[in-house]
Design brief:
CATH architecture of chain B: Orthogonal Bundle
CATH superfamily of chain B: ABC transporter involved in vitamin B12 uptake, BtuC
CATH class of the largest domain in chain A: Alpha Beta
Strand content of chain A: 25-35%
CATH topology of the largest domain in chain A: Rossmann fold
Number of strands of chain B: 0
Number of strands of chain A: 12
CATH architecture of the largest domain in chain A: 3-Layer(aba) Sandwich
Number of domains of chain B: 1
Largest interface: A-B, 35 and 29 residues
Number of helices of chain A: 9
Radius of gyration of chain A: 19 Å
CATH topology of chain B: ABC transporter involved in vitamin B12 uptake, BtuC
CATH superfamily of the largest domain in chain A: P-loop containing nucleotide triphosphate hydrolases
Structural class of chain A: alpha/beta
Oligomer: heterodimer
Order of helices and strands of chain A: EEEHEEHEHHHEHEHEEHHEE
Radius of gyration of chain B: 21 Å
Largest sheet of chain B: none
Number of helices of chain B: 14
CATH class of chain B: Mainly Alpha
Low-confidence stretches of chain A: none
Largest sheet of chain A: 6 strands, mixed
Order of helices and strands of chain B: HHHHHHHHHHHHHH
């Protein structure tokens, strides 16, 4: 599902958090959003998910303005994993993932075998089947994060928005979650802090101070010069002796 | 099985489980009291009244059962169910385990309305205590809602606390107004009477109250049950609910008004009965888990049975005297609540 942001601006109490950002992700692509803390990644995510309305500009989902869809219609198309979603309820891991089926259920369309299958599949994808009956409070940060991702997958979205999904995850699960997202047939927009992980995505958009400063293929957008300037460091492109893809190495300027 | 049939089947199954329990509780409410009456006597009275059978029953016993105990038990049941369901809904919406109907200032407002009519003589005797209580409840709720909105209550988890704080401010204000009116205008007898009402009192309940309380509790329960899935979606907060396709603002408005209305009417009939809305949802969660599709009926049933039981206790615990039911619910509820707090703390670690 194609997503397009057209000159999005967003301000809170006169302070501009995002100004004139335009970007798009083609069906099936994985777009990485990178930028320093406070550069507007999470704000952009919320606008793309329709959780906040842009002060100016439009979000188009499959060429349709997001503002014209109902909440339920949006939730059947877009799933978002935000940072730090927590609960005090004594809810099981499985019922967290079951929440993902909410947009597909109604009084006349109650829970069915298909919903159970989708939940099972999502739990398998994030390797959490063994934890299904565990209570939320007993799970680690990484396990909770994987459940949120499973909940998003259970929504069967055409567009997946992940705000720093690899936070809290050990390196095995970082790589496996990103791998899983790339292998899904859905369009994904992923906010990332690890620039070398961003290099493995289809496209990259770089935000700084609420503005889009670079976008394109990883090689175009994440040049050592751009990275150095945006993050205030010195970045260098290196290739390891094994001859793999180039990656970035950093040190303080 | 089609969706509608599955839904109907679910309803029938639920009713089959709940109705016998409720019937037993109401039967106990009609039997137990200062004079104990046999169950077959209660059933004879029911058959006489409902089917016009004309079975031989002592008219005094028939009067006690039909005019006093039955309406009392039915209103207690409706009231307990409504308060418990209100607690479930508010705890989910406000994401606060300590939320209950009184947190919104509703009961404090009802008290002010009641004393304004009965003691300060608002309306010149043309208005009833219930009418005053109901309007006071809505007024207080309006005050709290406006204050919470001005204080920025809304989407985030921190902002959800604002409505609780606004409720505390509202409760304090209206409690102070109540105390002011009593101190200024009431004589000793009136003060004692109103204190009795403030702590919850089912003594004055008659059939017209039943026709108000029972349909309202049923309608309110249905509205809340209809939103069960939406309430589940609030588990991770309002943003997460919105991302799951819930029209957050609409659900909040509908449910807060439904619960405010239920509480206002119940308080206007029976006075303030504390702890039911706070403790029963926790007890029901302990029995059936946090999912609202099962929690909603479980809380309603537990609340109904609990309050019918509390009413029985209030009538027999001191021979020859009726204790305010709010005292009974608080005496049972406060320790139960302490246990919940301590247990919750242990498992959270």
């Amino acid at each position: 599902m194609r997503i397009e942001a057209r000159s999005l601006s967003f301000s809170v109490r006169g302070k501009a958090l995002l100004s004139d950002v335009s970007l798009s992700a083609q069906p099936g692509e994985t777009l990485a959003l990178v930028g320093p803390n406070g550069s507007g990644k999470s704000t952009l995510m919320r606008l793309l998910a329709g959780l906040a309305r842009p002060s100016q500009g439009d979000v188009l989902l499959a060429e349709q303005p997001l503002a014209r869809l109902s909440r339920r219609e949006i939730a059947q198309r877009i799933a978002i994993v935000e940072q730090q979603a927590d609960t005090a309820e004594r809810i099981t891991a499985r019922s967290v993932v079951e929440l993902g089926r909410t947009p597909w259920l109604s009084a006349l369309r109650p829970w069915s075998g298909e919903d159970t299958r989708q939940v099972d599949k999502a739990l398998r994808t994030v390797e959490m089947e063994a934890f299904a009956q565990r209570e939320w409070a007993t799970l680690s940060g990484g396990e909770r994060q994987r459940l949120h991702i499973a909940r998003a997958l259970a929504q069967q979205p055409g567009l997946l928005l992940l705000d720093e999904p690899t936070n809290h995850l050990d390196i095995h699960h970082q790589l496996s979650i990103l791998n899983c997202v790339r292998n899904l047939k859905v369009t994904a927009v992923v906010a990332l802090h690890d620039l070398n992980q961003a290099l493995t995505c289809d496209r990259v958009a770089v935000l700084s101070g609420g503005r889009l400063v670079a976008s394109g293929t990883p090689q175009q957008a994440l040049t050592p010069d751009t990275v150095s300037e945006v993050f205030g460091i010195t970045a260098r492109q290196v290739r390891d002796a094994g001859g793999g893809a180039p990656h970035l190495s950093f040190h303080l300027a | 099985m089609s969706a509608a049939a599955a839904l109907a089947w679910q309803g029938v199954r639920g009713a089959c489980l709940a109705l016998p329990v409720l019937a037993a509780a109401v039967l106990a409410g009609a039997m137990i009291g200062e004079t104990s009456l046999a169950p077959d006597l209660v059933l004879s009275v029911l058959v006489n009244k409902l089917a016009g059978a004309g079975l031989p029953v002592d008219p005094v016993d028939q009067g006690i059962i039909w005019s006093y105990r039955l309406p009392r038990a039915l209103v207690a049941g409706a009231c307990g169910a409504a308060l418990a369901v209100t607690g479930v809904v508010l705890q989910a919406l406000l994401r606060n385990a300590l939320a209950d109907p009184y947190i919104l200032g509703i009961s404090a407002g009802a008290s002010t309305g009641a004393v304004a009519v009965t003691i300060a003589g608002l309306g010149g005797g043309a208005l009833s205590l219930s009418f005053g209580a109901f309007n006071g409840a809505l007024l207080a709720f309006g005050f709290v809602a406006i204050l919470a909105r001005a204080a920025g209550a809304g989407s985030s988890r921190a902002a959800a606390a604002q409505i609780v704080l606004a409720g505390i401010a509202g409760s304090q204000l209206f409690n102070a107004l109540t105390a002011f009116i009593i101190a200024k205008s009431a004589n000793a007898d009136q003060a004692r009477g109103i204190m009795f009402w403030l702590m919850g009192n089912l003594s004055g309940v008659r059939w017209p109250d039943v026709w108000l309380a029972v349909p309202l509790a049923l309608a309110g329960w249905m509205v809340c049950r209809f939103h069960a899935r939406a309430l589940d979606a609030f588990t991770f907060g309002t943003d997460s609910a919105a991302a799951l396709g819930i029209p957050v603002r609409r659900v909040q408005v509908v449910l807060i008004f439904a619960t405010a209305l239920m509480t206002a009417v119940m308080v206007s009939i029976v006075g303030s009965i504390g702890f039911v809305g706070l403790v029963i949802p926790h007890a029901a969660r302990f029995l059936v888990g946090p999912g609202h599709r099962r929690l909603m009926p479980a809380a309603a049933l537990t609340g109904a049975v609990f309050l019918i039981g509390a009413d029985i206790v209030s009538r027999i615990i001191i021979p020859g005297q009726v204790l305010p039911i709010g005292v009974v619910t608080a005496l049972i509820g406060a320790p139960a609540f302490a246990i919940i707090l301590v247990r919750g703390q242990r498992t959270a670690r």
